[in-house]
Design brief:
Distance between the termini: 34 Å
Shape: globular
Helix content: over 70%
Largest sheet: none
Number of domains: 2
Number of strands: 0
Order of helices and strands: HHHHHH
Structural class: mainly alpha
């Protein structure tokens, strides 16, 4: 039963992400948002702690991450006023991520996000910065965009360089 806990947590994150569609703002949105963020930190930690990591768990975690990011983007981005050049960078990052997944699918016959340190740093930065972005976009937005862009480019490069599919590559600098 313990081996199922990380996957159950990822599944709950997908369900809660979908529930966010009904909470466009307010306390309900933020409670669910923070539960999703915390669950993202715990599912992988628990899988490694109990030594129950699996390919299925990695795929489920990636799907849960993409679901949360996509739904939060659908809810939040239309209400934010940003300069066009920032929107251009956000769109560029999105296209790089899509290209990365297409290349991964073409090469390894699976859609997956690589769990690099850069992707983890992007996720944590976005998770903690989002509440402040709604109040006042700031210098930290530029840092977040730089982290996300570099991370997306690293993941794309990894997809080109890897000989076999692996979701658990920590960095381009740690290739075997």
């Amino acid at each position: 039963m313990v081996r199922l806990i990380p996957n159950i947590i990822s599944g709950i994150r997908i369900l809660l992400s979908l529930i966010l569609l009904y909470f466009h703002s307010g306390l309900g949105f933020w409670i669910i948002y923070f539960i999703c963020g915390i669950s993202d930190m715990f599912d992988g930690f628990l899988a490694r702690k109990f030594q129950v990591t699996s390919k299925q768990g990695e795929v489920l975690d990636s799907v849960a991450d993409m679901t949360l990011v996509a739904i939060v983007a659908i809810i939040i981005l239309p209400s934010i006023i940003l300069p066009m050049w920032i929107w251009s960078i956000i769109i560029l990052i999105g296209w790089i991520k899509i290209c990365t997944m297409v290349i991964g699918y073409y090469k390894f016959h699976t859609f997956a996000s690589i769990h690099t340190y850069g992707n983890k740093l992007t996720g944590i930065s976005l998770f903690f910065y989002l509440p402040f972005l709604l109040v006042q976009p700031s210098f930290f937005l530029y840092i977040l965009l730089a982290i996300a862009l570099l991370s997306a480019m690293e993941e794309l490069l990894l997809q080109f360089l890897l000989k076999e599919g692996s979701r658990d590559r920590k960095s381009i600098f740690l290739l075997d």
